[in-house]
Structure formats: C-alpha cells, structure tokens
# Entry
Amino acid sequence: MPARIKKDDMVKVISGKDKGKTGRVLRVEPKKGRVFIEGMNIQKRHQKPRTVRDVQRGGEVGGVIEKEGPIHLSNVMPLDPKSGDPTRVGAERDDSGRMDRVGRRSGERFE
# Structure
C-alpha cells in the first residue's frame, strides 16, 4: 500500500487551529504519523545569537524564529487532482503492476 500523503502534495487541514486552510506538504514523518505543511501550525523558537565569525560564514542570527510545526495525519486530507476538493485516497495497480494512489472522489491518479 503506497503512503496516503507524500511530500509536495496539496492538503487541506480538517481540524485544529488551521482548520479549512490548504497548503503544500514540506515533510512527512510516517513513523510518528505527522506532516509539516507550508505556513501551518507556526511555532516560535528562541535561538541564541551566534558569534560574529559564524554569522559571516552563513550561520543563523539569534532571535525569535518562526517555523512550521507538525500536524497529525488524521487532521489533513489530500486534495483531489481533478477537482481540488478534499478526498480519501485508495490504491490501484497500473498496467505495469505498480501501485498508484487514486483519489476516491474522482478516480483520478495522483502524480
């Protein structure tokens, strides 16, 4: 069975503080069952400033850094490739015998 949600998929958040928003998947952690979505579940982290030499070499400057936090897989739904509506995902074999993800709403294959 192929993974239901993969990197670069477009998904819609169906519960939580970002409910109703859509975005692109940046990273998936299948063992933890979590996804990171562009612009969703923004968390602030405080980082100490680096020395001047590290900054010149491309090190990060200190301060408050905002980045995406994890969202549980059950709280997102992939968007159908044909209509753009949220859909469940199934699996079908193609002609060569490979398993592909299929949107249940339209029957369209994911890329």
The chain has a mean pLDDT of 90.
